[in-house]
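Tip: read the tokens left to right.
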């Protein structure tokens, strides 16, 4: 897939995904969502990539939400597929670190919140504006925000639509760190994580994700982690061989 709205750059085991629409505040439109989803799936399947950084182009905007194309019909095809992006970030068994390099507003605030960690630049600004513009996010934007900063603070962000500085965001737990260069620091953290056990990191991310994702979260834990390990055991090989050879499996060979 040829990308127009994003850039995907790998540096060893770390992939950097950049929303590249600075003239539009790095808003995500339909194409942006499809490109991000595609890049995230490629990230999931690439064994050489162990962590990702998500950021916005330029020094003013991380992402200031969604931009809808003119509607051509009244059906679900008109809805921005951003939830697919949120879900991908949340369920891929590899960490995604947000580097918030400016304004993170509306869907942009949700986007960094669903990432595993967030590093904010000193000029970063965080805001939810839905009720001011006739919009809302009653999913990842409310549930994960409440888990991140608490019920009262999350309601404050949604009801009062205030701006929060990087320092305020750090104090309320919305971000992990504030740095002069958020991208460089996020890349440093991502590279540090790649020195950890990928299976252990994936299992922990699956555990955090499973809490909210019901059957899909449980399936990720069972399929992506446990099954991938089980298929490498002597037990799995012996049972499979016994079936193919039309004989009874030998229990002693499970451990020998």
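Filled-in amino acids:
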């Amino acid at each position: 897939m040829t990308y127009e709205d994003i850039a995907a750059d790998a540096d060893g085991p770390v992939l950097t995904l950049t929303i590249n629409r600075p003239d539009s505040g790095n808003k995500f439109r339909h194409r942006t969502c499809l490109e991000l989803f595609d890049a995230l799936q490629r990230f999931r399947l690439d064994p050489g990539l162990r962590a990702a950084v998500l950021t916005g182009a330029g020094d003013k905007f991380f992402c200031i939400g969604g931009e809808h194309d003119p509607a051509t019909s009244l059906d679900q095809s008109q809805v921005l597929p951003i939830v697919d992006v949120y879900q991908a970030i949340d369920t891929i068994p590899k960490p995604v670190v947000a580097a918030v390099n400016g304004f993170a507003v509306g869907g942009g605030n949700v986007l960094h919140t669903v990432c595993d960690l967030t590093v904010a630049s000193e000029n970063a600004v965080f805001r939810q504006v839905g009720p001011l513009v006739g919009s809302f996010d009653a999913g990842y934007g409310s549930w994960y925000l409440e888990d991140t900063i608490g019920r009262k603070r999350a309601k404050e962000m949604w009801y009062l639509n205030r701006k929060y500085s990087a320092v305020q965001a750090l104090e309320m737990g919305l971000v992990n760190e504030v740095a002069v260069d958020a991208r460089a620091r996020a890349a440093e953290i991502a590279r540090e994580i790649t020195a950890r056990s990928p299976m252990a990191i994936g299992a922990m991310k699956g555990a955090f994700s499973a809490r909210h994702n019901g059957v899909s979260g449980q399936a990720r834990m069972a399929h992506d982690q446990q099954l991938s390990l089980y298929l490498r055991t002597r037990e799995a090989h012996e049972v499979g061989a016994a079936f193919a050879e039309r004989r009874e499996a030998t229990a002693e060979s499970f451990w020998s």
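The first helix runs from residue 30 to 45. Residues 91 and 213 are 9 Å apart (CA to CA).
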